Amino acid sequence: MSQTYRSTRSAVKENKSFEDAIIQGLASDGGLFIPSEIPKVSSETLDKWSNLSFQELALQIMKLYISSDEIPESDLSDLIKRSYSTFRAKDVTPLAENITGEGENLHVLELFHGPTYAFKDVALQFVGNLFEYFLQRSNKDLPQEQRKKITVVGATSGDTGSAAIYGLRGKKDVSVFILYPTGRISPIQEQQMTTVPDKNVQTLSVKGTFDNCQDIVKAIFGDSDFNKRHNVGAVNSINWARILAQITYYFYAYFQAIKKNPGKVKFVVPSGNFGDILAGYYAKKMGLPVERLVIATNENDILDRFLKSGVYERSDDVAVTLSPAMDILISSNFERLLWYLAREVLAGGDDLKAGEILSQWFTELKTKGKFEVSASVINCALVDFDSERVSNAETTATIKDIYEHSQNPKHYILDPHTAVGVCATKRQMTKDNDKSINYISLSTAHPAKFADAVNEALSSFEGYSFEKDVLPDELKALAVLDKKLKYVEKADVELVKAAIEEELVKMGL
Ligand SMILES: Cc1ncc(COP(=O)(O)O)c(C=O)c1O
Ligand SMILES: N[C@@H](CCOP(=O)(O)O)C(=O)O
């Protein structure tokens, strides 16, 4: 078991440690870190794992990717337990089974029971504790002026930001700067991020799009001087720890689903930056017997277009949709999948050759705005993936449909991102017409975070009330809290770097 890491764009042998990959975040060649090999899990091991708790399962999975020489098993177990002690559900990510009726096999995987009511908490509660663990270990017994500090810089379309802030707030030797597109996130998302008073947290509201924010973050990682001065850390899913921590719930949900209906399993994932479904890809490649992973996109459909055409092309403008967290033009995590496809189909299994191909593709994307892959690459992707594109109208119709017809429970309320997934799921069910398949549709956020979309769908229903039926008291309470944010009037990396350095001085950490 190598448990080391390499960059998707490297054309040389690499074996970076887990800690180095996590602390660095983005590879110096601009690539993303991936494990040197994907561990395989036997059917006997799967049987043993099928009755483990979420925390125990997370430990068994993570220790396959993290050498005990780096993090002793007892320490890793403690990190995991602390990370999920903050969740409202005892099994962390419960599966709402057969929501449209017994035997329908449409299950909803509720990933929103963490502190910020979105799936990002599952990884970012762990990442926050991981950063703290590494820093405490490297700073042990050092005087303040010699202690290593990390300046986390992240971009969000709404959920990563609050999850990152809640995962890192108050942590020693860490400061957190989150960029978000002004006016393009929900009121609750902005309140969650900007009402955190902790000295080590600062939000930057940037006039632009999420993609502008993500490009700025990647440019900052590529600025070696700034990086040397401030030890920039990543909380976006460019950081491998995000993907690793999300693998657990694919195994956990699979085991729940087949207990009642021991058939096939398809996962349907509302996708934007491709981090969530990529964790499902690793689970499948580890040996979890998943029939297919279905990418559900909103009208920002680069992923759906790629699987149908083989062309990976940045469109000119991002569509504003009812599922804003997925209003993303370039899915940063897609690069990791492309590496596996390139290695299998074009590089004859050679890692270094795969890195060369990825470098060529992403140079083309940068210079021409697109690149094209062969049908053989697409056919390889289609072995594991399918995709569906869901419009705004279909999103609203699905929220209505499930509210009106759900059985377990009645009047089940979906957030718009989850609705994109459930709409795609129902389309798959019609195509497959196969009652042996369990469909697990990932619910990536609590509906309370997206009042406009939920109310647009449900306000005509007699007896429906957002305040009564949807909004938890703790989110209601955010509205009256003071906001701490800084506006950046132009999506410009130099303006953002200046804002960060100005705030770092004020933090005095
Ligand atoms: C609520 C919600 N659903 C779905 C997604 C898509 O997940 P991913 O970006 O990992 O594809 C995101 C974030 O991107 C999100 O915040
Ligand atoms: N939808 C995300 C966008 C960033 O994705 P990530 O996978 O890099 O965290 C968000 O909610 O910010």
TrEMBL record:
Q: Give the family from UniProt.
A: Belongs to the threonine synthase family.
Q: Which GO terms describe its molecular function?
A: pyridoxal phosphate binding; threonine synthase activity
General function of this protein? Catalyzes the gamma-elimination of phosphate from L-phosphohomoserine and the beta-addition of water to produce L-threonine.
Q: GO terms for biological process?
A: threonine biosynthetic process
Q: According to the UniProt entry, what is the EC number of this protein?
A: 4.2.3.1
Supply the alphabetized keyword list.
Amino-acid biosynthesis, Lyase, Pyridoxal phosphate, Threonine biosynthesis
Q: Which residues form the Threonine synthase N-terminal domain?
A: 4-84
Q: Which cofactor does it need?
A: pyridoxal 5'-phosphate
Domain Tryptophan synthase beta chain-like PALP, chain residue ranges per copy: 93-344
Q: Which InterPro entries match?
A: Ser/Thr_deHydtase_PyrdxlP-BS (IPR000634), Thr_synth_N (IPR029144), Thr_synth_N_sf (IPR037158), Thr_synthase-like (IPR004450), Threonine_Synthase (IPR051166), TrpB-like_PALP (IPR001926), TrpB-like_PALP_sf (IPR036052)
- Classification via Gene3D superfamilies: 3.40.50.1100, Threonine synthase, N-terminal domain
- Pfam families annotated for this entry? PALP (PF00291), THR4_C (PF24857), Thr_synth_N (PF14821)
Which reactions are catalysed by this chain?
O-phospho-L-homoserine + H2O = L-threonine + phosphate
Protein known as:
Threonine synthase
Q: In which pathway does it act?
A: Amino-acid biosynthesis; L-threonine biosynthesis; L-threonine from L-aspartate: step 5/5
N6-(pyridoxal phosphate)lysine carried by residues: K120
